[in-house]
Write a structure and sequence with these properties.
The complex is a heterodimer of chains A (208) and B (184). With 208 residues, chain A is of the alpha+beta class. Chain A is built from four helices and four strands, in the order ααβαβαββ. Chain B contains three helices and four strands. Classes of the chains: A alpha+beta (208), B alpha+beta (184).
Chain lengths: 208, 184
Amino acid sequence: MTAAGKMDVTAWVRVIWVLTAAIFFGIGIGAVWWPSAQAIASVRAQAKGAYDEANQNESEIRHAAQLRAVAERVSRDVSRLAGQDSESATTAMTLRILNAQSRKFGVEIGAIVPRSEAAPDAPNPGAVNNRLTGTEVEIDLRGCFRNVLSFVSDLPRHEVLIRINSVDVLQVDASRPDRPVLTVKMAATLFRCRCIVGTEVVRVPRTL
Amino acid sequence: MRFNYLRDSVPDAFERLYPHRIPESFHTPLAALATAVIAVCCWWGIERILLHQATAELHAQTMRLNESRAALGEAHVRRMRLESLVALDERLRAIRRSGAELSGELADVANHVPRRAWLTSIVHLDRSVEIDGQALGLDGLGDTVADLMTSSAAQSPKLLRASRNEGGRTSGIISFAVRIDVHR
């Protein structure tokens, strides 16, 4: 081999070594590892974010599921307190209760005057008001002070939802000083409650 | 003339491929080049597998997140319903308590009227109660106002009017009207 040929071979060997280094560092690290590592890190970060958010959501959902017992208890309570849901049933039951209570407490009922549909009076006119429909009623009573108070106190505790708005003592008949008889005008509201009672099952997603 | 009767060594891979064309000085760098190419290819494959695993994990977490978001939406709806139900329950309880509260107020007012005075009417206004009554002299009226001040259901009684009945059997009796604010 001539000297020029030997130089040529050495140069080619160097070219191959440089090419080897370029493939390893340039393509291997620059074109394969670095972009792939960046993409993997980005995807893992997104997965971690989704994992954390899902964990937080599931924690809230578990807490909400614990409220089921509360919801059932409140539903039972509302069912017990709600009274009648139709106007005719409310009227019939109210008359029955007024009759029974007046006899029980020795109070004479003079007049029952239905007024009008009661306007909503709760602070926020939301779902609660939409479920309660009221009719205002004025009831004239006569009886001893203690009996009237017992009558007023006991009246809202029966099957009909009655709110006592005011009790005005209009006149006191003191012909019997030991037992003065009061003439009382009682303003009340008869409510009908449309209740959506019942609970639904909260689905808790499977934890990974 | 001399003859070499010994056999040649077993040819390596390059000699097998190109037994006559590749000079011996190229064997090591070409082997390194081939190794580098193979290593980079394997590296690329491994990175693809890792990326695929990470993408699959992201997909699974995204699915779980979507499920949890849907369930959370349902839970929020249920929570709102429960809050509405609790508000209704409180309102119903307040309605059921209304009679006892009013009779308690009236009883409290009546219990804070002294013996030298008596009430003739009690009228509920917006957040106050107007009481009409009669008292034996100014002393009786003063005691009435003082006693009403100690009532737990009422506060700050205000005397609206007081007038002495003239002549007849009720002479000396003072008719009065007092307004008291009520706690509700």
